[in-house]
From TrEMBL, chains A, B:
Species assigned in the record: Arcticibacter pallidicorallinus
Catalyses which reaction(s): (2R)-O-phospho-3-sulfolactate + H2O = (2R)-3-sulfolactate + phosphate
Keyword field: Hydrolase, Magnesium
Any GO molecular function: 2-phosphosulfolactate phosphatase activity
Cofactor: Mg(2+)
The organism's place on the tree of life at top rank: Bacteria
Family annotation (PANTHER family): 2-PHOSPHOSULFOLACTATE PHOSPHATASE-RELATED (PTHR37311:SF1)
Pfam families for this protein: 2-ph_phosp
Major enzyme class: hydrolase
InterPro entries recorded: ComB-like (IPR005238), ComB-like_sf (IPR036702)
HAMAP family the UniProt entry points to: ComB
Protein name: Probable 2-phosphosulfolactate phosphatase
Amino acid sequence: MNVEVCLTPALLPLYDIENSIVVVIDIFRATSSICYGIENGADAIIPVSHVEECAAYQVSGCLLAAERDGKVVEGFDFGNSPFSYVAEKVQGKTIVLTTTNGTHAIQLSRSAKQILIGSFFNLTALADYLASTSQNVLLVCAGWKNKFNLEDTIFAGAMVNKLRPAAYTPDDSSIAAEDLYLLAKDDLRGYLKKTSHSERLMKLGIEADISFCLNTDITTAIPVLDGDKLIKLK
Amino acid sequence: MNVEVCLTPALLPLYDIENSIVVVIDIFRATSSICYGIENGADAIIPVSHVEECAAYQVSGCLLAAERDGKVVEGFDFGNSPFSYVAEKVQGKTIVLTTTNGTHAIQLSRSAKQILIGSFFNLTALADYLASTSQNVLLVCAGWKNKFNLEDTIFAGAMVNKLRPAAYTPDDSSIAAEDLYLLAKDDLRGYLKKTSHSERLMKLGIEADISFCLNTDITTAIPVLDGDKLIKLK
């Protein structure tokens, strides 16, 4: 079995998506929020790219999540903070989540055997599931506007590190991601402070979100794509 | 000033090439051989993608360099080993060099302010020149068939590390590349042994080339693209 890291969605055409299970990674904050919401009993989360698409669900009884410049868009139920995805708010609900980079990565991965959602929240549960399938794994970093980012890469590295004992063969980007993770793991928050995206998010006043998204193994649910919805893997 | 690392040529459309000096990096072995050849007195080196293109220069008095499966193609003067680019062979000559990944990276960078060739051989000389220009720097890893590779990334990281004192602002991929370089620098050969490309090259029986390409600061010439030719920067 191979484990490969696709460092940005722009590189997806180079990979054998059809013969892999894809894990989509968008740590700050889409895939963290999705893992948290599914763990906390949301029936489904529908990822969309634009606020306008999200608004189209307004009549259907879904909760709508959309932000612009770090603030909840007027008329919407909440933004992209994982703190919004608590049981009291999401249990039994379908949520439409606006996330440009995450949705882009999911759309480009559609031919995969299975599309799963990963974050530090469900790291071990997801690693255990992946190892149990004996399938090739492609870890897809959503990145930032198709560019490389450190937080997604470092999570990919954490997953590579977890999969090593199951005898996966890593590619060069998996080796790099794992080494960056090993370098950062004792102080993830400190390490990621030097990244451009963290800086951008800090300016939006969401330091608490960033810090929360770096908690490891606080959930066990694995979100899986089923049609256009992310639901809990049974 | 910014320093950015483009991890593979496939990501080049995302960068502001026009406002940058581009450094093309293909450590095993094209850009190492080019630096060595220009240092050793070659008049010019013309990079081409395919053996057929290279053969087209056969009538023009150029030296032709092309390999297939690690062996010099019949009828050609030499292959891609840097050991071929010694003064006795290349002084005063124009060499046509077949290099798929390197040529690809150069072609896609053509709109840059200037295109330079980097390798461990000319690391410090090139860093000093770059810092003297006060221009944005885009380090372009040639990679392997548009995929990420470790050796080019680690050299990019070495360059980022050299440019730091000149107050360049790094992007996330520059931070990652620099950290990987710092991790690897005390034993570059050992570190790169675990990469897929090294393994592939080992099978070709060119371990000596690989080891030689990791020598730092043995040359000072900076190859620059002038039309279709790489010549020595005056």
